[in-house]
């Protein structure tokens, strides 16, 4: 049986949905807003789990209704709250301004964020050359998991003529 490690945000409550949707031996690591990359270099227990359980796949998962992301996009800052004070800075001002425009735009913003976290994990985690790391977004209204958008579909900058 495949062994997968899911990085999830505890505010999404996705564990039962993941266990129901993915028939594998699932392990979970929670961090607010899936901000795992900021703490991974200090987590020897995480590296030990990956080695001992022979985990070959890591999935970063956020819901399209993730409270921390939606509040960050609305411009709410959590100054002084350890672990999430930096969170709103992850999103560009144009993302904060236009996130509500459509579900597609929100999925694009979430995809861009998760790709950044994945890149940081590749930098910090010494085992990533042997592990398949991908991002997923859970769409609550459709009750489905989607793979994150490829980079070429996520605009880094908008330009209106």
| CATH class placement of the domain at 3-64 and 103-151 | Alpha Beta
State which percent range the strand residues make up. Answer: 15-25%
Please provide the ordered H/E string of secondary-structure elements: EHEHEHHHEE
Helix content: 25-40%
Largest sheet: 5 strands, mixed
Q: Which strand order spans the largest sheet, edge to edge or round the barrel?
A: 2-1-3-4-5
Runs with pLDDT <50, length 5+? Answer: 153-161
- Distance between the ends: 53 Å
Protein structure class: alpha/beta
CATH level-3 fold name of the domain at 3-64 and 103-151? Beta-carbonic Anhydrase, Chain A
Name given to the CATH architecture of the domain at 3-64 and 103-151: 3-Layer(aba) Sandwich
Superfamily (CATH H level) name of the domain at 3-64 and 103-151:
Carbonic anhydrase
